[in-house]
Amino acid sequence: MRHSLLPLAISEGPMQPQITPDPITMVVEIDAEIRTLLSTASVYIDSPRRIAPSLLQPFYTQSKQLFLIVTRHGRIVPASLDTWTQNRLVVDVRQSMPFLKTGDRVLIIFPVLPDRQYVLQTWVEDRSFSRLTLRYQDPRYETRWQVELLEPVIVHQAPPEVASAVEQRRLRILRQMSFDPDRLAEATGGYMTDTLCKTSIPEPSPYMTFLQETPPLFCELKNISLGGLCLAVPPKEEQSGIGMSRLVSLHFSLPLWTDDAKPEMLSLTLLGAIRNVQTASRPWTLHIAFLKRLPTAFTSLFERLESLFLEKHASSD
To answer: How far is CA 111 from the centre of its chain?
Structure first.
């Protein structure tokens, strides 16, 4: 069965969609956070206790440095580990960071081996001139919604050369939207598409074509957030190479008007990074982060779709 990756048709009913005359195009900066997401060396953890004591010891003695990625700016700052507890750690930095504010999200990189780095998500709890107190943040901290889709999520895994070109910033990522995200509630259809391009002109590069021609996986959506989603991999779709490349292209459609037998659809083709593959039980699950978060306006759409999902399953019990 062939699934088109083209945007779905826009309704021409009496209610006029809030579609912009020209698509909105934005550049997705391939910053340190995205490169960390795409690196196969990265292992995301929820506490330093996940690191073997022998690998953590050099950071205790300060013979090895940590690196901080301030996600709001994409800056990388070297730091030394001072202390850590069950919920937070304290680091010393050698420079003033006036741009850093309480509540800012910070990734801590523990470069333990040449081919492995542990990544800890935190937020700034307290700061002084050269000392930061950072509180741990679970990688799955965001609100997640259970949403029922009419069709599977189509996943294409990037070949290594495509992922490498993105990590090395030899490509640009552009996001196009046929609607104003601030007026999503008024939209009656449309699309949002991430594309790999050579320039700022939204023409797909051969790398994008190469990516979308890889064998697809047809997965079931378990939950979704503004920052990513969790997918169940049916047994017939299981492949030994899942997760070998972090970069993926995702295609799925969200129903907008849910009181209709045939609701208008919002078609999404998004680039993401596989953060974790769980294969201990069936179905396998994929945890994927979007390279660019969805606009906050999607919150109300997800809340409405989850409410319908819960009502449907409550009535069937």
So the answer is: 22
If we measure between CA atoms, which residue out of 231, 254, 269, 250 comes closest to residue 300? 254
End-to-end CA distance of the chain: 33
Angstrom distance (rounded) from CA 304 to CA 112: 44
pLDDT of residue 195: 94
Sole residue written with tokens 């970069």: 247
Q: Give the per-residue SS3 of the chain.
A: CCCCCCCCCCCCCCCCCCEEEEEEEEEECCCHHHHHHHCCCEEEECCHHHCCHHHHHHHHCCCCCEEEEECCCCEEEEEEEEEECCCEEEEEECCCCCCCCCCCEEEEEEEEECCEEEEEEEEEEEECCCEEEEEECCCCCCCCECCCCCCCEEEEECCHHHHHHHHCCCCEEEEEEEECHHHHHHCCCEEEEEEEECCCCCCECHHHHHHHCCCCEEEEEEEECCCEEEEEECHHHCCCCCCCCCEEEEEEEEECCCCCCCCCEEEEEEEEEEEEEECCCCCEEEEEEECCCCCCCHHHHHHHHHHHHHHHHHHHC
Which tens digit of pLDDT belongs to each residue from 139-162? 667 899 999 998 999 999 999 889
Per-residue buried b or exposed e for 165-202, using 16+ beta carbons within 10 Å of the residue's own CB: bbbeeebbbbbbbbbbeeebeebbbbbbbbbbbeeeee
Q: How far apart are CA 280 and CA 172, in angstroms?
A: 36
Domain covering 47-136, topology: Pnp Oxidase; Chain A (2.30.110)
More confident residue, 17 or 184: 184
Domain boundaries, the chain: 23-31+141-316, 47-136
Q: Is the pLDDT of residue 80 over 90?
A: yes
